[in-house]
Amino acid sequence: MSTGVQGLDEVLNGGLTANRIYLVEGSPGSGKTTLALQFLLYGAHRGQKALYITLSETRAELKAIAASHGWSLDHLEIHELVSEDGLDPEAEQSVLHPSEVELGETVNDVMSKVRSLEPDRVVFDSLSEMRLLSQNALKYRRQVLALKQFFVNKGCTVLLLDDKTSEPGDLQLHSICHGVVSLDQVLQEYGSERRRLRIAKMRGIDFRRGTHDFDLNRGGITVYPRLIAAEHHREFSNNAASTGVAELDALLGGGLVPGTNTLLIGPSGVGKTTTTTRCVLSALERGQKAVYFLFDETLATMLARSTALGMQLEPHMESGLLTVQQIDPAEMSPGQFSNRIRVAVEQHGVSVIVIDSLNAYLQSMPGQRYLLLQMHELLSYLNQQGVTTLIALGQHGLIGNVESDIDLSYLSDSIILFRFFEAAGKVLSAISVLKSRTSAHERTVREFQVGVNGIQVGAPLTDFDGVLTGLPKYSGNVPLLDPQVRTE
Q1: pTM of this prediction?
Q2: Strand 211-217's sheet: what is its strand order?
Q3: Cα–Cα 20 to 30 A to 476, which of 47, 174, 267, 320?
């Protein structure tokens, strides 16, 4: 049975087993009610009878929640167990303990409503009120077991909502229910909170384990299943493609190979983004589709700079070959970002992806260890899909001792290193390829220059020593790209 929640069925490997009782637990505001409404509405729109039994939310509150998502509850049956009459002080009695009367009336009321409606899908909101009415754990467990048996005999698929107000470590509900879906909110020091979903238990289903990011926005919940690279394989050609610059192709040993990722590493302003733009433009000119994930700068700045360097991207954006997505790492979860990449590759046929830069992506992660794990899965997935991936990584410092926030060199198939160096009173740039798993690459250090004609790569700097340190020594006559620099 489909849950009606985008992405959750994939986590559950198809959906829920019908005619079973499931627990949806989470702190207040985590999204339990929204998930429950999606579950019921999905069934109602397909001709199934749907019943929402509420002890905590009023009919008006449920309609307000639905309206905030653009939904109508006209096809749902809403049954309020606590009415205005039940709250009347004159209705109270003093012979028996109130819980003994209210609990029995509540359970009988639920059973009576289910018998009359015979629903296919039921939501019971919430068990915390049932727990208060029961007064003790034994009576509470008996009532939940009685409801479970009743619902199963009536052929209902039921979601029991619980707000985790029980004693810490109390797993009674987990043992009773067929499955448990746990919703959680993680507060960030900056930016929006992260919402995560975990299947704590699911009998008879080989579900996707671990935590999965999800969003709660207008329109409901969207779950982003955790990416497992081993599940995604595709046949592709691994013939190297040109970057658009012959000298850079020579450095790389022939060009960029599909199914590999290339790390462009260097200090800020050295030309990493311009180089990735040149590589993307060459792929676009061959008719390939590309997505550029822009973290650091605005789209307008990127387009203006590219145009000034003779690289026109707007025509390819208009044709649909190029998509540039500006990402705010404070608002986007890693799971959502991975999902965007999957959509681009699997649904839109994208074969070139740029992440610019990894530094900003790092800020969206809960910690460095998790960045490495998620990037490992993401890059493995892209490689197995035959995608050419370009990743820019900025380093601290400009000249001399330059450091990185994180070391991703062991995950990269190729590494292009950029450096500033001083020569004859001017700051110049150098480029070299430190690593290539797919070809015998050139191990020279070449001059690199960005100008109105795009990027230029000069001859190997064979007469320089110490270029990568930023303070080289010149001992020869190799000409530089800039004729104004005199090195004699």
Answers
A1: 0.83
A2: 77-80, 50-54, 121-125, 157-162, 21-25, 179-186, 194-202, 211-217, 220-224
A3: 267
Identify the H or E element spanning 39: helix 32-44
Is the domain of 126 the same as that of 211?
Answer: yes
Same domain, 268 and 164: no
Q: Are strands 414-423 and 426-436 parallel, antiparallel or unpaired?
A: antiparallel
Residue range of the domain that includes 267: 231-414
Same domain, 352 and 309: yes
What tokens were used for 366?
Answer: 């809960």
Domain match, 205 and 133 both: yes
Q: What is the pLDDT of residues 187-246, one digit of tens each?
A: 766 667 789 999 999 998 899 999 999 999 999 999 999 998 888 888 888 899 999 999
Q: Which helix (H) or strand (E) holds 348?
A: helix 334-348
Unique residue bearing structure tokens 């939940």:
144
User: Six-digit token pair at 57?
Assistant: 């939310």
13: left (phi over 0), alpha (psi -120 to 50) or beta: left
Number of structural domains found in the chain = 2
pLDDT digits (tens, 9 = 90+) for 240-297: 999 999 999 999 999 999 999 999 998 888 999 999 999 999 999 999 999 999 988 8
Beta strands in 232-330 (DSSP E): 261-267, 290-294, 322-326
Using alpha carbons, select from 434, 441, 440 the residue that is nearest to residue 419: 434
